[in-house]
Specification:
seven-stranded antiparallel β-sheet; elongated; SH3 type barrels; alpha+beta; 7 strands
């Protein structure tokens, strides 16, 4: 998988990362990363169209697999067939980045 700007996605925030899956297996793996990401992403489609928003659903059903996204500035959801996706850009700030139970406890103790 071609990946720009990130060596180990499990070790740090995905913000700023770009993934260009080279196989269906890689595509499904990146979709799972994007689904778990709590910020906006930009999908670059094979048609060169770019969609920015929050990925909130994915359905893996062979050739009929798709993701659903709330696009920024739009009221309707958009369903995108997986085979049309060329790249994933993790463009929005992950609201959960760096947040953990331990960080919350430390913050609360420091406020006392």
């Amino acid at each position: 998988m071609s990946q720009d700007g990130l060596e180990d996605p499990s070790a740090q925030s995905l913000h700023g990362a770009v993934f260009r899956p080279n196989s269906e297996q890689e595509l499904l793996k990146v979709i799972d990363l994007a689904f778990s990401y709590r910020g906006d992403i930009t999908l670059e489609l094979k048609s060169r169209e770019c969609l920015n928003g929050y990925l909130f659903n994915r359905v893996f059903n062979g050739p009929h697999s798709y993701v659903e996204m709330f696009q920024a500035g739009q009221s309707d959801l958009r369903r995108i067939p997986c085979h049309e996706i060329h790249a994933f850009h993790f463009t929005g700030h992950d609201t959960a980045s760096g947040e953990s139970w331990e960080a919350w406890v430390q913050k609360r103790q420091s406020e006392k």
